[in-house]
Amino acid sequence: MDLQLSRNIEQFIELLSLPRCRVEEVLVFEHPPFGLRIEAHDERLMLTSWSLTDKGQRTSDAIQLNSPERFFGIPQRVFTISDQLMISALCPRDYDAHQWLRLCQRQRQFLTNLNGGC
To answer: Which of 15-29, 58-72, 100-114 has the lowest mean pLDDT?
Structure first.
């Protein structure tokens, strides 16, 4: 992982008010009410979000509502692991911590809206 990506990850963690930690290729946070997985892939960041409070969300509903326009033109992958709906995206190379934050906020808003705004 290059220094610029590492610094952006540090800033992203700070912007989300997550606990400080050593930057690694894969980081996982559970900061209620959401979970977040950050993965560095060839100088790009993959963001995966899920709700810690809502289990059994209907993947079919999420797939129908999912469109790149909701996420600044970035395609999202919606999938389920252990009855937990996840939403994931590989960010463009030129994105920085502030753009990751906006995308993460959109993912979280999408998950919240699936549950009627709860």
So the answer is: 58-72
Block residue for tokens 């999912």 = 66
Which of 115, 73, 106, 69 is closest to 87 using CA atoms? 106
Distance, in Å, from the CA atom of 11 to the CA atom of 50, rounded to the nearest integer, reads 21
Show Cβ contacts of residue 105 under 8 Å, excluding neighbours closer than 6 positions. none
Average pLDDT over residues 55-62: 76
C-alpha count within 13 angstroms, C-beta hemisphere, residue 57 = 27
Residue 29 bridge partners (DSSP): 36
Coil vs helix vs strand at 61 = helix
Q: What is the DSSP letter of 78?
A: E
Query: DSSP alpha helices (H): ranges in the chain?
Result: 3-15, 59-65, 97-114
Using CA atoms, how far apart are residues 35 and 66, in angstroms rounded to an integer? 19
